[in-house]
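#random but structural
TW: two for the price of one
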Amino acid sequence: MDYEVIGTGDRRLNNLALLVYAIQAISLFTGLPALVGLVINYLKLPDVRGTLFESHFRWQIRTFWWMLLWSVVGGLLAWILVGFVILGVAWLWFVYRIIRGFLALNDGKAMPL
């Protein structure tokens, strides 16, 4: 089997992307850590430009903003009960995005932009 050699800089960026996926996973149960992950993404985005990690950072950023949007919409509509459905679907979508991103990172693949 051939294994791709990862340089020290790439390993550091890989670990950072992995950390943000872990933070997002933790935020499934408490929302605030996702904000920490978002800050990391924006602060380190210049460091990952032109690498496969850029696609992961952008994936994580989009995941955060879309989840925030659907959480607000679901929260506002919760009083008519449809909001709870929106919140449930958004939570499942968030789980999917974390798992899909983590698996692609583990395989050394970029995420679609």
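TW: number two ↓
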Amino acid sequence: MTDLAKRAAPAAEASPSTAPKERPRLLGLDGIRGVAALFVMLHHCYLLAFPGYPENTGPVWAAWLLYGHLAVVIFIALSGFSLGVSPARHDWQLGGAKRFAHRRAWRILPPYWAALVFSLIIAWTVVPQPETPEPTGKSVLIYGLLLQDVFGSPSPNGAFWSIAIEAQLYIVFPLLLIVLRKLSSIVMLTAVTVVVTWIGVLAPHVSVVDLLIRLTPQFALLFALGLVATGVLRASERVRRLPYHWFALVAAVPAFGLIASNGSVWTVQHFYWVDMSFGPAVALLLAAVATGRPVWLVRLLDTRPLRSLGSFSYSLYLTHAPIVVAIHAKLVEPHVTGTVATFWANVALAAPVAIAFAWAFSRFFELPFQRYRSWGPLRAAIRARF
């Protein structure tokens, strides 16, 4: 018997009562990630074809593609939910701040830094991002340190702005958990809501507070809402049976009402409040999907194409913008006339390339860091492969 077989034998011989129980996978969450990443990519295809953002210069049927920002709202709430799943199942215990910080850095930084290098190469050798100067050495430093929402510099990638916010939310996540565990989810959510609301109210009148808007503090509320939504996993069966999908639909009415009644320019100028109004609907939808409802939607989200797309959605989010911009500038814009035709050409040419590239990118820079949680196992796997 080999050493590997000897180590595996005790686990294989363990009785069902002593073997560790695997937590069931929450169906549908990967599908939500995949749909959100696809939405952001289509949003960028749209912006390149129909200039004038935030003015709606495109056809009515495509107006929804103006609001790719809302996909980031979904990502942030989903991030809070995903990080909250394990603590929710363990009495809201984090399992160690140091371990949490290592796992988050290990998960997001290697793909991000690889995508940063890729984005800089495209910006320096092919085409920079639209309406943005060519990245500089300052860009490399600021984006490399995830400080792009604090200091301004030419962007190498139009999708990178939210990654810094995500990283900053990881810093406050342990604090949110402590308040939730020691007091309650209501106290935690109320505290975050009060702080974020007052920042939004005071920002137009107090210059120091206005500086905080660069950090998009409303995302802290979305993140907290996602975290609170994981409470459904530890709730009683009666609470779990509540029709959260219908609650989500009702909660979405105010946000969509604001957008429909005020138009795209107002919406973009007031994303702070629109995001906050949209957040509860997203959190309720996540709670619904986590409890398996509506069944048809969960089944759709868990179909193989959407589940697969969700498995490398982070890579797609990180790498699609330079590809879409480069294909538009070099292949579509010189040869296609008409805005609608340009949009469909962007989708037909850039979207498949971006998806295929993201899939390959994830195999090298994302999935290995999910499978192996430290350098030792990762190096061993690489040596065994080559």
